[in-house]
Amino acid sequence: MLVVMKAQATPEQIQAVCEHIEQLGFRAHPLPGAQRTAIGITGNKGEVDRGNLESLSGVAEVIRVSKAYKLASRDVKEEDTIIGFAGTNASIGGRNLAIVAGPCSIETPAQAFAIAEQVAAAGAQFFRGGAFKPRTSPYAFQGLGLEGLRIMAEIRDRFGLRIVTEAIDNESLALVAEWADVIQIGARNMQNFSLLKRAGRLRKPVLLKRGLSATLEEFLMSAEYIMSEGNYQVILCERGVRTFADHSRNTLDLSIVPAIRRLSHLPILVDPSHGTGRRDSVLPMARAAIATGADGIMVEVHHQPEKALSDGPQSIYPAQFVTMMDEIEQIAPVVARHLPRGIHVAAEV
Ligand code: PEP
Ligand code: MN
């Protein structure tokens, strides 16, 4: 259910409706929009009685949301969600494209700084790097853990880049929430519902990657888990799915981008690195992703990919990253987008 407030409804009236909903044993999610505030109602105790709600002051109408996902749906919030990063010009969603770049894993301070310096110079605003790695083999490099987070915090201080890094379990979630700007939840954890709920109780943006074989509805339901706990700052990321195709590591499903944009207000990025697994496919698919309407790109960049401890074959060289940025900058206006180059951080007062 969705309560649509009148355009002139006062904060007190909105508050009173929320309290009424909570007294009935449901959860109220006030969602301010450009024209009016809507209040999403969630809960798993059946349907709320709409009659009472309609009579509360300031209420314009009460609408039944028929989709399985509610808070993630455009039915509940028409305008695109834009996630801002306080004190910077960086954002995810809306007209400006967001570029997240960096190595698969943080390996050493020297490796991370070398890559960060080059992606920052090319105009990225977000730096990615895994400190906690979900690896297929227990004998593969598992990440530097807390040391990796410390290295990324130094990168933020030195270059201004906002940090995106993965949490793989409850323990790493607490650490990542403390050190990073965006919490990544990886493909393998897309349906780890207890982890999603915990991330939902935090007030930091969550970048949710599509599961290895998740349908669009499953993907949005996972976003809903996070939002149902009150964290509305969710960024979706298409990263390829398993198919019979064996010319690429995964099949990058770009057709999900317009489908998501139609059904949901949440921003969606595309990861052509995991989506293809091949360095030579990354730039073409990044171009295509922007053309389909993606809100940005997450890409793996390594200065010495042949020596990388994870995902070297799909990591592009820094020079290729510059080319990718130049190409995206040219494609952006065709799809009414803009690529901001570089992050500006307001001086601390
Ligand atoms: C990653 O981004 O490093 C990663 C492990 O991605 P995914 O969860 O999409 O496999
Ligand atoms: Mn990787």
Structure report:
There is one protein chain. This protein is an alpha/beta fold. It has two domains: 2-63, Alpha-Beta Plaits (2-Layer Sandwich); 83-335, TIM Barrel (Alpha-Beta Barrel). The protein has eleven helices and 14 strands. The chain has helices at 11-23, 50-54, 109-121, 146-159, 170-179, 193-200, 216-228, 256-263, 272-276, 279-292, 318-331, and strands at 2-5, 27-32, 37-42, 59-63, 83-84, 91-92, 98-102, 126-128, 162-166, 182-185, 206-209, 234-238, 268-270, 296-300. The strands form three sheets. Strands 7-8-9-10-11-12-13-14 form an eight-stranded parallel beta barrel, surrounded by seven helices. A four-stranded antiparallel beta sheet has the order 2-3-1-4. A two-stranded antiparallel sheet has the order 5-6. The chain is globular and about 65 Å long. The protein binds phosphoenolpyruvate and manganese (II) ion.
CATH class of the largest domain: Alpha Beta
Order of strands, main sheet, comes to 7-8-9-10-11-12-13-14
CATH fold type of the largest domain: TIM Barrel
Number of domains: 2
- Overall shape: it is globular
